[in-house]
Amino acid sequence: MSKKGILLVNLGSPDSPEVKDVKPYLDEFLMDERVIDKPYWLRSLLVRGIILKTRPKKSAEAYQSIWWDEGSPLIVLSERLLEQVRKNTDYPVELGMRYGNPSIEAGIQKLVDGNPDLEEFVMIPLYPHYAMSSYETVVVKAREVMEAKFPKLKMKVKNVFYDDPRYLEVLANSMKPYINKEYDHILFSYHGIPERHVQKTDVTNSHCLMVENCCSKDSPAQQTCYRHQVFDTTEGVVERLGIPKEKYSNSFQSRLGRDPWLQPFSDKVIKDLPGKGVKKLMVVCPAFVSDCLETIEEIGVEAREFFMENGGEEFTLIPCMNENDDWAKLVATWGEELL
User: Fold this and answer.
1) Annotated binding residue at 207?
2) 4-161+324-338 CATH choice from 3.40.50.1980, 3.40.50.1400, 3.90.215.10, 3.20.80.10
3) Which residues contact 156 (CB under 8 A, 6 or more apart)?
4) Domain 165-318 in CATH 3.40.50.1400
5) Structure pTM?
6) Residue burial 251-277, b: 16+ Cβ < 10 Å; e: rest
7) Binding site annotation covers 197?
8) pLDDT tens per residue across span 45-93
């Protein structure tokens, strides 16, 4: 029995692609105050009074189009990563999800049940970049669970890893088999967030989206700036792969609502690229470490259609790192370094 352990945390997924399971999953996700950062009464009105009236059916259809025999791709791939990480460390390792099942509480409970002498564990949020609606909400939720259910346990938290040279090396190597083929352009499509989220996490309250070329100017704000961090990841990858500056760009996908979100938007960029001479396009989604609805369906299906309908000829979605051996080894190493 070990006194130390590791908990991996990913986003989550509905229990099934049916409306009855998609609706409560969306409710938990969208009612998170770090996802829709409005007062509770307004968030409840928007989510439960408007969005959940129609969105579950549409989302269920999208999930049904990508669902595997084993279950949700994100859950299945996270479980495969879990097994690979276990092979690379002697510490016990469990898995939790921010939304849906298994919950963060369930993941910690499994660590405790399997290791009655457990004193501390490292939580590794599987998000390379800092955002209110991803990394931050996982940390806040985990601390709430710890205070309420496991007050005697000690938890350490792995920081974001967008610029860790080892992570950049693994990510770049996972892309190599694809970019060794002929292509015109590589699009780094990151999950979008509202502009106000970037400004809310600005510890200086005076830098992000307020200073010209803010992401390229050193500032304490960059420690929690999603926009700066995703650009940094792109630069670290293209440097390692030797991708010329004219052959890559960044964009943001998955926007919701009418508020200003980070731009340029992936769907618009992908529609416009064929008119700029790009006939062979590759898209990679480094905000995600596991393939999921946003990569498989939104990019692999919808974006592919946009590209081909507008004159594109070849569209390649580069998979996430998923259960890549080197990625699993690195995750295990991070856990051990903090224990």
Assistant:
1) no
2) 3.40.50.1400
3) 120, 121, 122, 123, 338, 339
4) yes
5) 0.97
6) bbbbbeeeeebbeebbbebbbebbeee
7) no
8) 999 999 999 999 999 999 999 999 999 999 999 999 999 999 999 999 9
